[in-house]
Design brief:
Elements lengths: L6 H9 L23 H4 L14 H12 L18 H20 L8 H5 L38 H11 L3 H5 L3 E10 L7 E8 L3 E8 L2 E8 L2 E5 L5 E4 L2 H9 L5 H8 E11 L2 E10 L3 E8 L5 E10 L2 E15 L2 E11 L2 E12 L21
Antiparallel strand pairs: 1-2, 1-13, 2-3, 3-4, 4-5, 5-6, 7-8, 8-9, 9-10, 10-11, 11-12, 12-13
Helix pairs in contact: 6-9
Length: about 375
């Protein structure tokens, strides 16, 4: 059975959203406005996902990919995502209905059971428990009430931790003097695939961001202009960035104003002391825009943001995206991490900054959406 096939195909699909940054691969989708619409209104041949918000189709497809460790071509015939040429698509439809029924009849409709519950990254469901290894420690029947693990110690007030982070980047006054930021980087993908790809991130205050990923088979461009956005993928298809994707772009691509917007972005904040790769950190958790779970780990001594974890919602539940930051450097009165490692269900990416510029001219035309392209296919 065919999995993620060629290097080029994997790179194309896995990199379109990458990063702090990273998540859903680009697919040929509709290019009209879809905010508030259902998936069957914007895609062809929808049979079991009817009623799902259109903006969830891409993260949902990625969730299926990660759960079975396959690529789009496992279910979708080449040359037409809406075709029913492959039997795997019909089997998948039946599995979706089965999982929905299980959750509806046993868990009140909550997504307690998903594809990953049984498949665990394999095309075939896992039926047999693994052998018990020699290092396994059986529970002691004579000590049923063994002492629980130590509870984490509370950290400083979350607002204080966020203020320390902002101060370490140069402070609000210094960042307010920066009107544009252009970051150019080299990207290496998991297992060495995609080595040498170039990435450009552009931020222009107060709410314009774009990412430009150059590959050997084409370019992927993602743009956010306020609360709207669009994407041009390697196949030349242009589509609107929809619904929750806008919020994700604010977290992933805003290299300039992320720190200054954290307090207004996050709610339900909590803080605790923790360890991250042996280092003492303050871990701040909360909800971004009251719906996206986020966990941020800050160095106890430096205040630097060392790890960002957020959970992207899809029709099955949530997918975890993790971004690690390192190599902080002082440039023109501000500080910035020159190395990121982005990990999600389908792999990871290493981003090394090569060039960092601030207050350089950035033409507003770079954030203007091109004309609509042809409507894409469905699932």
């Amino acid at each position: 059975m065919k999995r993620k096939s060629t290097t080029a195909a994997f790179t194309t699909l896995a990199l379109a959203v990458l990063l702090a940054l990273l998540g859903q691969p680009s697919r040929a989708q509709d290019s009209g406005a879809t905010l508030g619409k259902k998936v069957e209104e914007v895609s062809k041949n929808i049979k079991v996902l009817n009623g799902m918000p259109a903006d969830q189709i891409i993260p949902t497809m990625e969730f299926y990919e990660a759960s079975l460790n396959v690529g789009c071509e496992f279910c979708h015939a080449p040359g037409g995502l809406d075709k029913d040429d492959l039997k795997q698509k019909e089997v998948t439809r039946k599995m979706i209905l089965m999982v929905r029924a299980l959750n509806k009849e046993n868990f009140g409709g909550r997504s307690e059971v998903t594809c990953y519950t049984c498949h665990r990254g394999s095309i075939e469901p896992v039926e047999t428990p693994p052998a018990v290894g020699a290092d396994y420690k059986f529970p002691n029947p004579d000590m049923p009430n063994e002492a629980p693990a130590n509870k984490p110690l509370p950290g400083p007030p979350p607002g204080e931790v966020l203020d320390t982070y902002l101060k370490g980047l140069g402070g609000l006054a210094a960042l307010n003097k920066v009107s544009t930021r252009v970051v150019k980087a080299t990207l290496t993908e998991s297992a060495g695939r995609g080595d040498g790809l170039t990435l450009e991130l552009v931020s222009k205050g107060p709410d314009k961001d774009l990412s430009f990923l150059h590959t050997s088979i084409g370019d992927t461009i993602r743009v956010r202009n306020g609360d709207v956005g669009w994407e041009h993928n390697v196949f030349g298809v242009i589509r609107d960035v929809r619904g929750g994707e806008i919020d994700e772009l604010k977290i992933k691509w805003d290299t300039l104003y992320f720190a200054t917007h954290l307090k207004e972005m996050l709610s339900n904040l909590d803080s605790k002391q923790a360890k991250l790769d042996g280092m003492d950190v303050y871990e701040v958790s909360g909800l971004a825009w009251n719906h996206m779970p986020v966990v941020l780990s800050f160095g106890k001594g430096t205040g630097n943001l060392l790890r960002l974890v957020y959970f992207d919602q899809n029709d099955n539940g949530h997918s975890k995206i993790q971004v690690d930051f390192s190599d902080y450097r002082s440039v023109e009165g501000t500080r910035f991490p020159f190395h990121w490692t982005v990990a999600w269900a389908l792999g990871y990416q290493s981003i090394r900054v090569d060039q960092f510029q601030q207050n350089v001219p950035v033409d507003d035309s770079r954030f203007v959406r091109p004309a609509l392209a042809a409507r894409g296919n469905g699932n």
